[in-house]
Predict the structure.
Amino acid sequence: MGAFTGLRCAMCKTEFPPEALYVCDQCLGPLEACYDYEKAGRTLTRDALQKRARNLWRYRELLPIVGEPRTGFNSGFTPLIHAKRLGEILGVEKLYIKDDSVNHPTLSYKDRVVPVAATRAIELGFDTFGCASTGNLGNSVAAHAARLGLACYVFIPQDLEPGKVVGSAVAGPHVVGIDGNYDDVNRLCTQVGDRYGWAFANINLRSYYAEGAKTYGFEICEQLGWVYPQHVVSPVAGGTLLPRIGKAFKELQHIGMMSGQLPRIYAAQAAGCAPVINALENGEEYPEPVKPDTIAKSIAIGNPADGYQVLETVRRSGGTGARATDEEILEAIGLLAGTEGIFTEPAGGTTLAATINLLKADAIPKDETIVVCITGNGYKTANVMVGRQDPPTRLGRSLGEFESFISKRATAQVQS
Ligand SMILES: Cc1ncc(COP(=O)(O)O)c(C=O)c1O
Ligand SMILES: [Zn+2]
């Protein structure tokens, strides 16, 4: 059933065997999974999909594994929500939220990349699975490793939100907090992977891991009834998700499942960590690394591994990018919860706030179809919203007390 054929350098096109390789030894370009698209198109059809389970593996012909999936049977196929109340406020009728804040089992988009990396880790014979993480990836790696009985190491910057740390630790991996930022953690993990021969989902298995992110794009098309949206706004940290959404849109054309105008793709970053937006504005081919300083810790990556691919995808699609300040991020979290009942974390607040800024700048027309990528859950980072709402009203237990509260409130409302 699979159509995965091997790895190829995205730059010089040298081919590589499907091992734990991620960088080209000729030109240092990133390695990408390749497929026999003709073969994939024979079995991956709209009809076939109707009979398949609603998880990320329904697109399995275009995922880089050779045997059977090992985990992720309840991951992916998250809701695509027509956000009518939010859309009314923003003046956008066709506004959609692709809601990975409810992805199973660890409530972020990472639950679609990790099952692919974990399955491939087992296929390649690894017994230890790890990652360098800003929080969500660690949660997902720890959870899937627990299910699979793999030894697990989660490396994080030591200043992450407590909800993110507990979310990994509870599944029993070795959690290693590094005195440094994510970019320091990533550098160390590259060395650890080489030295100990461990599988790191987002480092030496990156070529496989990244492919799982395509399922986010496949699902958007399927859930819109096999029509492309016109605009997609994606958060950018390491740069995995955004280019793979673009790749997914193109692959559906390659295998004959879709036709039509490809969407414009826009990058969203926090103002305190915006190397990709800087590069878009300055016309650079690669993002210049920055030192992150933002409440959006899950996307605080100053030196994105796939920065080049993000810039290429955004530019080729005709999109652009936008920043969001920490205050705009927090306001957007409240707005999304208050209109659609979706509680996202600062990464999601960044994407919505950047979308609002793009609309204000007329970079996205309000009368077209817009998908906002919400990729993480606010319950893990609830601390950032503490003190921003009215505190709960405190009353005694009698109905009389409640009645007097309500009548005072009514009077206050009439007077105001
Ligand atoms: C919630 C959330 N959204 C988005 C991202 C963006 O990641 P990337 O650009 O590496 O795909 C991350 C990365 O950690 C994340 O945790
Ligand atoms: Zn190369």
Remarks:
- The pocket of zinc ion (ligand 2) is lined by residues 9, 11-12, 14, 24, 26-27, 29 (CB under 6 Å).
